[in-house]
Design brief:
Helix content: 40-55%
Low-confidence stretches: none
Structural class: alpha+beta
Strand content: 15-25%
Radius of gyration: 21 Å
Number of domains: 3
Strand order of the largest sheet: 3-6-5-7-8
Number of strands: 15
Distance between the termini: 49 Å
Length: 375
């Protein structure tokens, strides 16, 4: 049977629909509001969060009427957490997904241990180190500096930094508030997920569920895409097992794509409104081939910012610029750098979205929008 081919715009519109960037989801009032925010975090299979506040902007762009307190309260009440997961990066996920995802991605995390300890890895008793580190962080949340210093006397010859990073790999560490609470400040202190949530990790997590969750948020996708997002390998075997319940497509270069049969795949000419997407957003980072949302040339421009993956500007669904927000002395300045000339209508739409973001992020400050000269 012939397999349908999806062109670049069809893949773009499917991704934007899954990511709730074509039409933000409404937020109900009352007690269901928190459930809706958690539901979006779970629908997205988490938000990348190695910086404290990008997830707030990620949810703002996807939930109509979202307020910073909507997420801050969930962090404080332990309904969402920040933990190293996919690609060994910090993600903000629901408590449920924390307990299910961490054991699934643990093999990918374990692969980093030889690089952390170098030649000393051969003599490392990883089980003993994990037990010692867990006891320390469960006694009270620790910074990595504190943790490395406390472990160092019993692990001579190992750098304190390496010991702390080893615990990050071996023990599912969550960052505890006030870290990443909007309007608050605090060092990154860690305890185990089990101690923080009062529940054990899932003893029998399903890779099948991980893949279907990925497809719901990022499909249609190749096996290589799923592996790039998760950091796991040999997922082709899992996809083959799931194949009878999936729908297959081809992209224009002929690669096989998989998707959930009933997932949205809008027409390629579906209008896509201007969006300002958060720093480190998984929209940009979760495919082996990212051409569906950013061209190769523009993708390289995103990686020239001293390791900081910037907020991006979507025009007609594709990355067409970056944005930066700076605040000082009760003034918030949002600077937009477009990658090329745009119509006056598009420029005005970017300005409107920038004003909306400023009202969200800096209510009460004086607002200023600047467009950087186009190089």
């Amino acid at each position: 049977m012939p397999t349908d081919t999806l062109d670049l715009r069809a893949l773009n519109r499917a991704l934007l629909a899954r990511q709730r960037l074509l039409c933000p989801a409404p937020l109900p009032a009352g007690p269901r509001r928190a459930e809706a925010v958690i539901g979006m975090v779970e629908h997205l299979a988490g938000l990348q969060a190695q910086a404290p506040f990008p997830p707030y902007f990620g949810l703002w762009s996807r939930l109509a009427g979202f307020r910073p307190a909507d997420l801050a309260e969930l962090l404080v009440s332990r309904q969402v957490v920040r933990i190293a997961l996919m690609r060994s990066t910090i993600h903000l996920v629901s408590a449920r997904d924390c307990l299910a995802f961490r054991p699934l991605v643990q093999p990918a995390l374990d692969r980093s241990l030889p690089a952390i300890f170098g030649k000393q890895f051969a003599s490392l008793d990883a089980g003993a180190l994990a037990a010692a580190g867990r006891a320390l962080v469960d006694a009270e949340p620790r910074t990595f500096s504190e943790l490395g210093g406390l472990l160092s006397p019993d692990w001579p010859g190992h750098a304190p930094t390496a010991l702390a990073q080893g615990i990050r790999v071996l023990v599912p560490l969550v960052q505890v508030p006030p870290r990443a609470v909007w309007g608050a400040a605090g060092q990154a202190r860690h305890t185990s997920a089990e101690a923080w949530l009062g529940r054990p990790l899932d003893p029998s997590p399903s890779p099948d569920v991980l893949i279907t969750r990925y497809l719901a948020a990022f499909g249609p996708a190749t096996v290589a895409d799923v592996q790039a997002w998760s950091g796991l390998t040999r997922l082709g075997e899992v996809v083959d097992r799931l194949r009878p319940g999936l729908r297959a497509f081809r992209d224009e270069p002929g690669r096989e794509l998989f998707d959930l049969p009933e997932a949205p795949r809008p027409a390629p000419d579906t209008p896509a409104p201007v969006r300002l997407v958060a720093e480190f957003d998984n929209l940009i980072l979760s495919h082996a081939d990212r051409a569906r949302v950013v061209s190769d040339g523009n993708r390289l421009r995103l990686y020239s910012r001293n390791g900081i993956f910037p907020g991006t500007v979507l025009l007609d669904g594709f990355v067409s610029g970056i944005w930066r927000l700076a605040r000082s002395r009760r003034t918030a300045v949002l600077t937009v750098e477009l990658f090329g000339p745009v119509s006056s209508r598009d420029r005005a739409a970017v300005g409107d979205e920038a004003r909306r973001l400023l009202r969200f992020a800096a209510d009460g400050d004086r607002h200023e929008i600047r467009f950087a000269p186009i190089a």
